[in-house]
Amino acid sequence: MLTRKRYSLKASQPAPDLLPLGLACTLRDYQLGFLLNQLLHLDLERQPDFEVEIPRTRQRLNFCWFRYTDPELHLTYHLLSNRCGQNCLLPEYRQADYLLCVSGAESNLLRDLLFERLRSRAELQLVFEIDLRRVKHQNRLIFD
């Protein structure tokens, strides 16, 4: 019997300095954006929807997307909805309603500060760090 060799193509991966957080809350996208702007002193702005195509079904899904770039700290914040109907941007993390991804976050100090501020708000029922090793579709976290 012949054995099959499997080859896989490594797709682009998110930046190594990406800090992805999962947020569970009942707020609408614009309400969460406003809350994060106040809480973290950001200026998140609505972007065109983040579009993902499901190859198997050729279905196109649109996820709400907000973005802010901090020119002084060289950080970029991305707030994305994790839900589009019954589908999820990151199906491995269905418990997250939203994803907050920070590019350029190389220190644990920023991570700890974000956790402290986000977990202090009752509107956010759950705040957790996303383990990129568990994410099957890492290319969905490439924003540029």
Please, could you describe this protein's structure?
The chain is an alpha+beta fold. The protein has helices spanning about 30-40, 110-120, and strands at about 20-25, 45, 50-55, 60-65, 65-70, 75-80, 85, 85-90, 100-105, 125-130. Helices cover about 15% and strands about 35% of the residues. It is globular, with a radius of gyration of 16 Å. The longest helix is centred in the first third of the chain and has 12 residues, at about 30-40. It has one domain.
Summarize the structure.
The protein is built from two helices and ten strands; from the N terminus they run βαββββββββαβ.
Radius of gyration over all CA atoms, rounded = 16 Å
Quaternary status of these chains?
single chain
Structural class: alpha+beta
> How would you sum up the major sheet?
6 strands, antiparallel
Instruction: Trace the largest sheet across and list its strands.
Output: 2-5-6-9-1-10
* Structural shape: globular
Q: Would you report the number of β strands?
A: 10
Provide the low-confidence segments as ranges.
Answer: 5-12
Distance between the termini: 46 Å
Helix content: 10-25%
Number of helices: 2
Relative strand content: 25-35%
Mean pLDDT: 86
Supply the number of structural domains: 1
What is the H-and-E element order? EHEEEEEEEEHE
